[in-house]
Design goal:
The chain has helices at about 5-35, 100-130, 145-150, 170-175, 235-260, 270-285, 285-305, 315-325, 330-360; strands at about 40-55, 60-75, 130-135, 140, 160, 165, 185-190, 195-200, 205-210, 215-220, 220-225, 230. The protein has about 375 residues and is α+β, with helices and mostly antiparallel strands.
């Protein structure tokens, strides 16, 4: 088993992943605000005490702060980094809260959208450079203790659908199986031109990667030999990248839903320590793996920020949706309580995730 990366390499890789992604996220907010002529008072990478900074000729303070776990843009008229309106600043042209509702919504959405664009760009470059694997969803062989074979599938059968979701390629199977160990699903197959449906209990498989990380996932125990790598043109590389990103988003949403319903353990929630650990491991594997990991983290940042939790971008968008329905802003008192509650929830979640990270590492973990 390869040695784990050193602490210095892990920290460096973590900053190399998170730093650019945070900068691009905040640049999304900043550039759209500038497009709409909304002034930015502060552009901060990190939170807490300023380590270095400068003020440009537009009056924006660009700063590097001590805690490198995110960042923010504070617009004119904001009372704080959470974009609460400052009651002492009049809502005049150039301030964030004087902008039209749709402009404020686009400014807020631009941050997560920038992270999604980064992931799409990375996957598109990979698709264009290396091509895309294509395999028909036809069973060529079974693994040991195959769940599909036990259910009655045979070599040569084509998997058509899983729980009604159409399966076009062999790679599609993973999305509908990986997160659902021990779940019984209805799988539609085709044999000699005749369709049939069989219930299959997805097997639970526990594996370890090259660094000893335990991976638990669902598997049907089927394999195909007819994998071809097809070259991909510029346009299709982008459309494929969008599909890949959306598949990852669907997987994330399903995973969080399972944690909320208790189907999946809350111990799977990871925080900055786990991200740092994986950053170092992927960096030690090679640049291609590291950049692909950065794309995954970028999608994670976009997804998490779009959750409808006050203090996150999704919470702001939820407030704007309420404002659009009510035809007037949510009261300052309601906003304050919502942001306080959201901040407490986010901090508690971060502490819990960090605790999970700590206990999962030696000497506490397996």
């Amino acid at each position: 088993m390869p040695e784990s990366p050193s602490i210095l390499l892990t920290i460096g890789a973590f900053l190399l992943v998170l730093g650019p992604l945070v900068i691009l996220h905040e640049l999304g907010h900043y550039l759209v605000a500038r497009w709409f002529k909304v002034r930015s008072d502060v552009f901060s990478i990190g939170f807490g005490k300023e380590l270095a900074g400068w003020t440009d000729n537009r009056g924006t303070r660009w700063r590097l702060a001590a805690i490198p776990l995110g960042g923010y843009v504070q617009f004119a008229g904001d009372a704080n980094a959470a974009s609460m309106p400052d009651p002492d600043v009049p809502a005049e042209p150039g301030t964030f809260h004087a902008a039209a509702l749709w402009k404020r919504a686009l400014i807020v959405f631009a941050g997560p959208f920038a992270n999604l664009l980064v992931a799409v760009a990375i996957f598109a470059v990979f698709n264009f450079s290396y091509g895309t694997p294509v395999a028909q969803p036809v069973i060529d062989s079974f693994g040991p203790k195959s769940a599909a074979q036990a259910a009655g599938f045979k070599i040569g059968d084509r998997i058509v659908a899983i729980d009604g979701a159409r399966i076009d390629t062999f790679q599609d199977i993973t999305e509908h199986v990986m997160l659902y160990p021990d779940r019984t699903v209805s799988i539609s197959g085709e044999r000699n031109g005749v369709e049939f449906v069989l219930p299959v209990k997805i097997a639970r498989v526990t594996e370890k990667d090259r660094f000893g990380n335990v991976i638990e996932r669902g598997m049907l125990g089927v394999a195909t030999q007819s994998v071809k790598v097809e070259p991909v043109g510029p346009v299709r590389s982008v459309t494929l990248a969008v599909d890949q990103c959306m598949g990852i988003v669907r997987t994330m949403a399903a995973g969080i839903a399972q944690i909320v319903t208790g189907e999946r353990s809350v111990q799977e929630l990871g925080g900055p320590i786990r991200i740092a650990k994986f950053s170092g491991e992927y960096f030690s594997v090679g640049w291609a793996a590291f950049v692909a990991f950065a794309a995954m983290i970028s999608i994670n940042l976009a997804f998490i920020n779009l959750l409808p939790i006050p203090v996150l971008d999704g919470g702001h968008l939820a407030m704007y949706a309420a404002e659009a329905i009510r035809r007037k802003p949510v009261s300052a008192r309601s906003q304050e309580w919502a942001f306080r509650t959201g901040l407490a929830f986010v901090l508690a979640l971060m502490l819990f995730a960090t605790f999970n990270d700590i206990v999962s590492l030696w000497p506490f973990g397996n």
